[in-house]
């Protein structure tokens, strides 16, 4: 894979300081995200874990309604407001409705005004990877004269093509020009954006978890059948790597792969990720690391090739990585040479890495881990230690610090330290 080419594309003119632009009255953070709990996807999990570190006086969440069981959450945690989807159809993803969704941006902005009509809002945080919600949150913040903080979980403009790229260029320039600071998901993505937009403040705000730190599990023995597990949804960021793992598993009946996913079964059949020794199932986000702990080896597929841009594969940090680390089982990553994920895994010595699209290398890596107890124990202990970096109180404290530094005052500055609270409820 070619290395991404970085070009200077700075925003014209440096913005004034937040204290000059905004009044700084204390209030709540409005977090706008297309995906919210109980959706089973990376963005919903990231938002939910972070929100658990804030009180109802400090944060309010708004996003798209989805199917799933809602149960009451602790009365002190932020309230969620669900908004109807602007377009969907069975077996058609959101990209199929991209242009229909863009026409609904004014309606969503109006809904944000309605939701916050009786609220004192101090700042707006917009979660991307959905440009519809990013655009609506930007419009709302601009109309209300509020500090604005995009939170990029992925690249935007750099991962669009054709007419969509033209639209993305216009929106991204506006968003970056107005933002007080831009949160991004990894140091890799931060470095990339800083090289392109030197006038904009970018801050890494990593995935987080609210679990207590587990002890190292016993990985000394593996049974006659090696139990592999894979967590997460199937998409262009991991499809090719997942298919190679499936090929290895199908050819070796001493392996069994369990896939914990929110992606429909019909899609796995369509792309050929099936087999008599491959099981598809679901798991609630708060139970993911416990479920993974029941297996011998964990696999982490990250695209070596596919339909996304080179920079997307270079900078992404998969959400599924965190529950894998917490599970403390030996981790086998299949990801492209030179990407940020590989550098991070190597620096923390917490995964065996195969960085070439080679089925035989994957097969050999699995065999090595099966037969090397010392390597399994090393990877297990290092994975749990690495997971400490993602503890939600640390991540939330960093977010509060950036907000304070840019002039935002919350109604209450007292962190909320709940462990595994109940799911979020509707407003």
Features:
single chain, 427 residues, alpha/beta, Rossmann fold, 2 domains, seven-stranded parallel β-sheet, 13 strands, disordered C terminus
Q: Your description of this structure?
A:
This protein is of the alpha/beta class and 427 residues long. It has 2 domains: 18-210 and 391-405, Glycogen Phosphorylase B (Rossmann fold); 226-387, Glycogen Phosphorylase B (Rossmann fold, 3-Layer(aba) Sandwich), CATH 3.40.50. The chain is 37% helix and 15% strand. The chain has helices at 18-21, 42-51, 98-103, 105-115, 131-144, 163-178, 187-196, 239-250, 265-271, 288-292, 310-315, 321-327, 340-348, 359-371, 373-387, 392-405, and strands at 28-33, 59-64, 79-83, 121-128, 148-152, 182-184, 202-204, 226-231, 255-260, 278-281, 297-301, 331-334, 352-354. The strands form 2 sheets. A 7-stranded parallel β-sheet has the order 3-2-1-4-5-6-7, sandwiched between helices. It has a 6-stranded parallel β-sheet with strand order 10-9-8-11-12-13, with helices on both faces. Strand 12 (331-334), helix 13 (340-348) and strand 13 (352-354) form a beta-alpha-beta unit. Helix 5 runs parallel beside helix 6 (163-178), helix 8 (239-250) crosses helix 14 and helix 12 (321-327) packs across helix 15. The radius of gyration is 21 Å and the shape is globular. Residues 1-10, 12-20, 88-92 and 418-427 have low confidence and may be disordered.
The geometry reads as globular
What is the CATH fold-level name of the largest domain?
Answer: Rossmann fold
- What is the CATH-assigned architecture of the largest domain? 3-Layer(aba) Sandwich
Run of helices and strands: HEHEEHHEHEHEHEEHEHEHEHHEHEHHH
Question: How many domains?
Answer: 2
């Amino acid at each position: 894979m070619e290395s991404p080419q970085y070009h200077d594309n700075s925003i014209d003119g440096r913005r004034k300081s937040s204290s000059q632009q905004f009044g700084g009255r204390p209030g709540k953070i409005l977090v706008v995200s297309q995906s919210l709990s109980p959706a089973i996807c990376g963005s919903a999990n990231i938002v939910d874990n972070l929100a658990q570190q804030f009180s109802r006086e400090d944060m309010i969440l708004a996003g798209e309604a989805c199917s799933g069981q809602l149960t009451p959450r602790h009365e002190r945690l932020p309230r969620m407001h669900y908004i109807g989807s602007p377009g969907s159809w069975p077996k058609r993803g959101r990209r199929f409705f991209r242009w229909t969704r863009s026409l609904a941006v004014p309606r969503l902005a109006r809904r944000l005004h309605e939701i916050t009509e009786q609220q004192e809002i101090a700042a707006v945080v917009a979660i991307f990877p959905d440009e519809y919600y990013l655009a609506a949150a930007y419009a709302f913040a601009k109309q209300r004269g509020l500090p604005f903080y995009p939170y990029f979980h992925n690249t935007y403009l750099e991962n669009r093509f054709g007419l969509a790229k033209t639209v993305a260029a216009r929106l991204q320039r506006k968003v970056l020009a107005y933002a007080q600071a831009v949160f991004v998901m990894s140091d890799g993505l931060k470095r990339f954006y800083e090289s392109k937009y030197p006038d904009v403040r970018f801050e890494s705000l990593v995935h987080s978890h609210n679990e207590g730190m587990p002890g190292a599990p016993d990985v000394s023995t593996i049974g006659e059948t090696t139990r592999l597990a894979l967590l997460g949804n199937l998409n262009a960021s991991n499809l090719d790597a997942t298919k190679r793992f499936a090929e290895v598993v199908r050819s070796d009946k001493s392996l069994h792969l369990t896939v914990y996913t929110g992606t429909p079964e019909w899609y796995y059949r369509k792309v050929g990720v099936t087999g008599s020794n491959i099981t598809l199932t679901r798991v609630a986000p708060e139970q993911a690391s416990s479920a993974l702990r029941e297996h011998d080896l964990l696999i982490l597929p990250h695209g070596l090739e596919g339909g996304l841009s080179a920079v997307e594969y270079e900078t992404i940090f998969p959400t599924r990585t965190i529950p894998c680390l917490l599970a403390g089982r030996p981790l086998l990553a299949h990801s492209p040479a030179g990407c940020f994920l590989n550098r991070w895994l190597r620096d923390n010595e917490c995964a065996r890495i195969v960085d070439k699209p080679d089925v035989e290398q994957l097969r050999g890596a699995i065999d090595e881990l099966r037969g090397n107890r010392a390597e399994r124990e090393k990877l297990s202990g290092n994975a749990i230690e690495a997971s400490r970096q993602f503890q939600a109180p640390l991540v939330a404290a960093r977010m509060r610090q950036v907000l304070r530094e840019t002039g935002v005052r919350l109604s209450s500055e007292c962190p909320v330290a709940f462990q595994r609270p109940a799911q979020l409820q509707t407003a």
